[in-house]
Amino acid sequence: LFAYLLPGTYRGQPPIRSETCSKQPMAHMNPVHHLPCVQTKQMCHAKVCVPTIYTVLKSKLYLTQISANSNCSVEQRIFRVDPFQHFESISDVFGPENISDLCRFVEALDSEIKSCCDNIGLLCLAGMGKKQLTSAVLLIGAYLLLMLKQTPENIWDIFKRLSLEPYREGSDSSGSLSLVDCWQALAKGVELKWIQPPFVPGIWGCIDIDEYDHYASLCNGDLVQLVPGRLVSFPSPVELPPGQSFRDAGGSRRFSAAYYAEILCALGVTDVVALRGIDYDVAPFRAAGIACHRVDVPAHLPARAAADEFLRLAAAARGLV
Length: 321
What we know:
Blueprint: H1 2-5, E1 46-49, E2 54-57, E3 61-65, E4 73-80, H2 99-115, E5 122-126, H3 130-148, H4 152-159, H5 179-191, E6 203-204, E7 207-208, H6 209-216, E8 224-227, E9 231-233, E10 246-249, E11 252-255, H7 257-267, E12 271-274, H8 283-287, E13 291-294, H9 304-316
Parallel strand pairs: 3-5, 4-5, 12-13
Antiparallel strand pairs: 1-4, 2-3, 6-7, 8-9, 10-11
Helix pairs in contact: 2-3, 2-6, 3-4, 3-5, 4-5
């Protein structure tokens, strides 16, 4: 579950040394960027239309959704949630925020709450819609867990009266992911010390947020460590002409095996397991001393035999997989 929710990178990884970083991304693909730490009207009493104000922490933290048609208003110090939210353009796909957005939100919210006067509560504003509300609840729950040490069950007791939307991977998904699942995954990451509140801004235990943004960017390879020090994921490479490390086409950026081989070798990866077949030349991986394996997973959920084979390969690997 932690791997599903929080693909992060290990602190201290070498930077990607590739021409990709210096080339201009396609117009529709944003380069790596950082959200502003706080999206709020500093110490102002802004009139905001709120049909309902939901208490998270009495006299301290509240949640509401903006309604353009509402006639009621309240004066509060506000904190906007939407700069930390990103939704898939595919209507059937709805997943939790990644580790970068989650940690930046928690840092910003914690800073804003600490700067509030005792008699002024902080009002978190979520956009209209069940997805927007669910996403806001996940982020606020992460704050309660990471900074206030509340349990997933106690956090759910706060929000269980709200009408929320389950996470899903598509219309044919055989299961859904709940908010409690996500908070339990986060709690497991805390237990294993993979993620910890930062003593230095941007460094959350094993996860360096700037490093995560760089590696996970679609412009740089969409590469993440699912389990720190053990499992790395990246899209299947494509066959490209010699000397060409990436190709922009069809609204996406794809990379060669040679491009990934250099990065994976620097990360300590010793084995690559292809889950969707191999339609590219594996020679760059083998030249870098990386063994190549194949485990076919044709659907969202692998068969038991495929899962067992993957776990066997992971256990036998000398380094990261």
